[in-house]
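task queued by scheduler; priority normal; single chain, no ligands, no partner chains; default sampling; output format set to structure tokens
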Amino acid sequence: MDKLNLGKVNFIILIIAAILLVVGYFIMSLNDIVISPVLLSLVYVVIIPFALLYKPKNKE
């Protein structure tokens, strides 16, 4: 099941991304058409792929 090899750091980054998504959609519900698209684009294009592809360096 662990084909992606996601660690604790990856899940923390994904949780932060989920929180930012909720914040972005909440801002969008307030009819702010400047901040919310920038925030949502940043989360979808940068943060989520980074969280999925990030591998911490070994300390060995």
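post-processing summary
- The chain has one domain: 8-53.
- Helices lie at 8-29, 35-53.
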